Amino acid sequence: MEKRCTKPSGKCGEEDDPELDCNQFVEIQMVVEILQVTMDIIRDKKIILTKILSADTYYILQHVQQNKLITDRDYSALKSLPQNTETMSGEVLDKLRDKGEEACQKFIDLLKQQSVLEQYPRLRDVFPDLRQGPGVSAPATPPQDPDHITKINEYKRSICLTYKKVKEYNSLSGENVLLADRYTELLIVETHRKQREREEEIRCRGEHHQQVLKTRDSEAYKRITVDQLFKPDDGGDVPKAVIMQGHSGHGKSFTAQKIMYDWASGKVLKDWFDLVFHLKCKELNEISEACSLVDLLSVTNETVEVLRDSEMKVLFLIDGFDELKFSFEETNTVPPKDPFREAPVEATLGALLKGLLLPNCFLLVTTRSTASDKLSKLLSDCQRFTDILGFTEKGVNEYFKRFFKEELLAKKAFNFVKTNETLYTACSIPVICWIICTVFREQEEEGLDITKELETTTSIFVHFVSILLKHHCQDLSQPAEETLLRSLGQLAERGLQEHQVLFDEKSLSEAFPDPSQANKCNFLCKFLQRKKVKQESMYSFMHLSFQEFFAALQYLMLENEEEALDKLRVLLGNVERFKPVIQFLFGLSNREIYSHLKKQSRPSIQPYLQHWLLSVLQNDRMHEEGMLHILHCLYELHEEDFVRRAMGVWGKIEFDSIPLTRTDCWVLLYCLQCCSTIRSLKLKECNITAEKLRMLQPALSRCQELGLTVESLSDSDVGILISALGKGKILTELRVASSLKPESVEQVLGALSRQKSVGNVRLSVTTITVTTTALCLDFIQNTETCRHLR
């Protein structure tokens, strides 16, 4: 029996059945397009439809009821929702999808009626076949030539097969993963942010950083999705060229591959373009002989013949413009105007970008920010600028789920990342997410204790830098690579000394022996800033944490040991200003971590760092902020023998009225677990919640002497507290700043009775009962050391 594709239009090759043969889809695509699956249109267009219809929700609700698409009961329920809100319009769309295919088809027909279009003019952006008016391109129409249809479908089949899998940085020969198992939607905006906004993005960390990204994920910053890249602008004009800018590791090439695959599968841009071609700039650099445009496309002669059809709507996706070695300066070479005419690659590509070759085609070009202004000058006037900002918190969570496929494992990895403020911030960068997930999976497969074995912040950053050096700086020799890292370190250090995260051209020229190398550097970002009547180029690291990392790295790049130690003494004499740099230095002094970045040895600064740390621990006057900093240094060093030695010198750890973050608790847990026994630990008024108590529980249960204040503890969390208390302790103080039920108080008192001695105890109870009172009296009478019970 012939096997038939039963999946809806645009679904072939999606995540739920990624191995489905795309041949089946392409063969029936033209038929399926006639019977468009409108339920999926409403799902895929829900965000934009929700925004458009929220302008007047009562109007659309009335028409939906009049056309009998919903019941009277549905109408009454929907009408009770707040009017003219996205909540209501979203509920209307969800209700219609619940009604099935027929109701959705009638609803789409309703939206295309003239009266509705007049009420909601932006609906023309959603349905390309409705666009009219001067300056607005019509969408691609299916070619009528049956021979062309066959050739295009064959091309789509080959694209599906080529692009459905992706090779990862650590893939062995023949290893690939499905694109659908990795690709996660990115936050892309059109707005050029102001200097103040960019500084905010660079400086903020953790939850605050995610809140900033949430504000960018809005209409105010013109958030845009892939299927909207060629929508008309506010003036009704369709852009002929779209620039997709993004920093290194932010997913530009991945997005390009996804666009190719989804176009061939009929999921995006199919209403706009009959053909989409992909040019990889890294590959174009390797071509020395003269070539025509069709030679560069590497497609069959049959597909090339379709290009002769002037009615075709064609998109060229040019990936990695910043990697090109070409200057695109004026030469004596006559630019080709025929796609079949041979010319130097620089001339051919330049003619395509400038609109001299195939002037009716469309362009989508990905680039790093350092080359955006050069690209913009080459392109025609009608262009759209977009900027990839990376993953929001939702995107990070989704990426982890796709990577692991197991809900519990994905949640475990995500929760770990949230305990580390710096890594949580860096996870907006897709490559950082991949590194963390890869490392986490390996540790899980080997059954290692993630508390002790999982990589440090420094090691994740080292992996990131080594990946960029290996895969994006391939032309650099070893000496040039070292010069680059030293220059980055000097720029980073100077910025930290002067409280700068944005740098002008002068600052770069002072740090880089060859300032032109700065534009080719994958670790810096560039943007144009208006300054009165002119523009000024500004540069930055991807985030302040990377600036701190490179500032630390330069200490290990110095050839002269005496010079390195002199600089180190100055740095350690100013701890308060440079805590993150010092923590990264401890991480880089771990020989195994540094070896991932550099194979040859350098004069070691580890002995000096360790001597300094031990001398600080022996100083009884060290304040609590300083104690916390030392714990972070020990965690980044991640050498268990030395951590055990340092903790032995310390002996007694006490924090009073200093809020501990999840990152602090994770670091404290690691350091405590390196000790065979823990003599004394006091955490008083440190914002230890049930979540943080759960993190610390394995170490707390082994303390000989313990003082503890716990906040936001519910009755269901009492078991965690009891496990943390263990038995046989000298419990100097216990305060539970939450009201507990009598039954929970009884359990806590039972745990206290198992301790060696008990000092001050303060418990809150929701209801005072005879039983509770009796238990408290009994506890006081039988516990000689208990001084206070409140």
UniProtKB/TrEMBL annotation:
<feature type="domain" description="CARD">
    <location>
        <begin position="34"/>
        <end position="113"/>
    </location>
</feature>
<dbReference type="GO" id="GO:0061702">
    <property type="term" value="C:canonical inflammasome complex"/>
</dbReference>
<keyword id="KW-0378">Hydrolase</keyword>
<dbReference type="InterPro" id="IPR041075">
    <property type="entry name" value="NOD1/2_WH"/>
</dbReference>
<dbReference type="Pfam" id="PF14484">
    <property type="entry name" value="FISNA"/>
</dbReference>
<keyword id="KW-0832">Ubl conjugation</keyword>
<protein>
    <submittedName>
        <fullName>NACHT, LRR and PYD domains-containing protein 1 homolog</fullName>
    </submittedName>
</protein>
<dbReference type="GO" id="GO:0045087">
    <property type="term" value="P:innate immune response"/>
</dbReference>
<dbReference type="InterPro" id="IPR029495">
    <property type="entry name" value="NACHT-assoc"/>
</dbReference>
<keyword id="KW-0391">Immunity</keyword>
<feature type="domain" description="NACHT">
    <location>
        <begin position="240"/>
        <end position="371"/>
    </location>
</feature>
<dbReference type="Pfam" id="PF05729">
    <property type="entry name" value="NACHT"/>
</dbReference>
<dbReference type="InterPro" id="IPR032675">
    <property type="entry name" value="LRR_dom_sf"/>
</dbReference>
<dbReference type="Pfam" id="PF17779">
    <property type="entry name" value="WHD_NOD2"/>
</dbReference>
<dbReference type="InterPro" id="IPR007111">
    <property type="entry name" value="NACHT_NTPase"/>
</dbReference>
<dbReference type="GO" id="GO:0006954">
    <property type="term" value="P:inflammatory response"/>
</dbReference>
<dbReference type="InterPro" id="IPR027417">
    <property type="entry name" value="P-loop_NTPase"/>
</dbReference>
<dbReference type="InterPro" id="IPR041267">
    <property type="entry name" value="NLRP_HD2"/>
</dbReference>
<keyword id="KW-0677">Repeat</keyword>
<dbReference type="InterPro" id="IPR011029">
    <property type="entry name" value="DEATH-like_dom_sf"/>
</dbReference>
<dbReference type="InterPro" id="IPR050637">
    <property type="entry name" value="NLRP_innate_immun_reg"/>
</dbReference>
<keyword id="KW-0963">Cytoplasm</keyword>
<keyword id="KW-0547">Nucleotide-binding</keyword>
<keyword id="KW-0067">ATP-binding</keyword>
<keyword id="KW-0395">Inflammatory response</keyword>
<keyword id="KW-0399">Innate immunity</keyword>
<dbReference type="Pfam" id="PF17776">
    <property type="entry name" value="NLRC4_HD2"/>
</dbReference>
<dbReference type="GO" id="GO:0005524">
    <property type="term" value="F:ATP binding"/>
</dbReference>
<dbReference type="InterPro" id="IPR001315">
    <property type="entry name" value="CARD"/>
</dbReference>
<dbReference type="GO" id="GO:0042981">
    <property type="term" value="P:regulation of apoptotic process"/>
</dbReference>
<keyword id="KW-1271">Inflammasome</keyword>
